[in-house]
Amino acid sequence: MKRGLILEGGGMRGMFTAGVMDEMMENGIIFEGAIGVSAGATFGCNYKSKQPGRVLRYNVRFKDEPRYMGLRSWLKTGDWVGADFSYHILPMELDCVDFEAYKNNPMEFYVVCTDVDTGEAVYHKIEEVDHHEIDWIRASASLPIVSKPVELDGRRLLDGGMADSIPLEYFQSLGYDRNVVILTQPKGFKKTQQKGIKLIKHLLRKTPKIAEALANRHLMYNRQLDYIDEQERLGNTLLIYPENELPIGRIEQDEAKMRHVYQMGRDAAKARMEEIKLFLGC
Questions:
Q1: How does pLDDT run across 132-153, given as a tens digit for each residue?
Q2: Where are the beta strands (DSSP E) in 128-257?
Q3: CA distance 20 to 23
Q4: Which of 50, 95, 134, 152 is the most buried (most CB within 10 A)?
């Protein structure tokens, strides 16, 4: 049995995911592999480096730092989330990833990106955290319009959620047959087409495959929701999700809201810990 952890994105809704992960780490829950999309990638790498608490800590510490994320960063650099500060200075110098723990942990960690020129999903296993590999995490979380494409290994890449928002099927194709999926939307949620799609298509006219992916994302996402529900009924997938819509916006950095949503994740995992352990054979 290969146990997998699948982490969808959602921006700061990912604080719920961080709370779930920290509770599982502190309870000794082990996975053979994990895969993260967007915020699921930026936050999920901390499971492999065995650093509970780090996601909440650095988000609270740097919430007012203009180099971290926000309008000032976007206007100055073309990236809402500052590429150099957020993905190099912060994790390498200010609140460091435990590089040795990450490298020595046998758990595999994958991220999902979208190829700008084809609109297709690109999957990448991150063996160790260095300046090149961390840019794969950055690419996975780089939203179109508010981020520049990340050029890596001959590709131009952006946010993975446009091509594969909940990569359960991909992980199953790698042999992961017992999976925990952490969602950032409540049960029964269905995505609708993004508002202002005509304007978005105009703004993305130079990257038509990305515009197409965004226009059709709700269809892909809802198909994936149907699939994971089916897998849950078959007994090979366990879903963890908030009971209600999370009270935080995708780019919101209000400390009280971040702490509250993080605690919601902890509480959700704590309430189901025995079920998680039984499901995974822990």
A1: 999 999 999 999 999 999 999 9
A2: 150-152, 155-159, 178-182, 237-240
A3: 5
A4: 134
